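Blinded run. Sample ID left blank on purpose so nobody reads anything into the name before looking at the predicted structure. Input follows.
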Amino acid sequence: MKKDPTASTRKHDHIELAFESRILTENLDSRFYYEPLLSAHPNQISGYPKSFLNKQIQAPIWISSMTGGTEKALMINKNLATACKEFGLSMGLGSCRSILDSDDRLSDFAMRPFIGDQPLYANLGTAQLEELINAGNLKSVYQLVEKLEADGLIIHVNPLQEWLQDEGDQITMPPIDVIRTVLQEVDVRIIVKEVGQGFGPESLKELIQLPIEAVEFAASGGTNFSLLELLRSRAERKDAFQSFANIGHSADQMIDFLNELIPSLGPKVNCRNFIISGGITNFLDGYYHINRLNHNAIYGQASSMLKHAQVSYEALHQYISLQIEGLKFASAYLRIKS
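Blinded prediction complete.
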């Protein structure tokens, strides 16, 4: 047996901290069974898809769409993309609207040199795509993806945000029709996401029957861009429409919808890849949700990544390292309660 030079100090700490180290029963995390007998300490994460969006990944983490077109965007996106390459993660860019017609801020989004061959997706909203459809200019979508050397395009669906935004665009086509038109006319891989309200069952039913690569939840519980727009708005408008911020679906609800919808639709289902985002605060949330969904899934984080990426690459690196360490332990010792 090897000698432990820290034993005395450790035992002293145990005595000093014993009374501060109690967890009340009501504070136990009720989502998991803890099974300490069944594994050795792990050196890798188990139980997640090793291939996602036709590329290899090393952890089930998606860095969700955040920023672009601002002074800090280049530094933030560069840090995020570099981390994706180092840790084998995937990334969605923030809205690329600002570089549709101009390359002035292209460097904010041109992350392929930093991310290597990891999954990287551009991003446009249905409102911008509707404008391109009406102008007969959908070819610019393909040009955008090519210019960024991206693997495809995220289409973000945000009618509530646009309606609540003082400068918002008027949506005249149902977003599902916009998505169908893009799929028919542009040869790019498509992911569809919400922006903080999530999708109800009828919307999910329509989406998963389309030939898209994945659905990202962007469920209620994370950054809510509709609430964000209300906070920017005039006082009387904020007071009138505050209740809309509470409309939406949690990640748990959307998982329930999909677990029921996919078996019932059978061969009609074209999309079986999912990015669970919205209210994912740490690795335990992510591990829980991807194991609850009975289909190919990883989980996405935005605000937590942004918080550390805007400090420094070192801060982001440490954060992701600890998240992956937690995922390794969770995958070895925790089982999801049904």
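Unblinding after everyone has recorded impressions. Residues 51-97+105-327 form a domain with the TIM Barrel fold (CATH 3.20.20.70).
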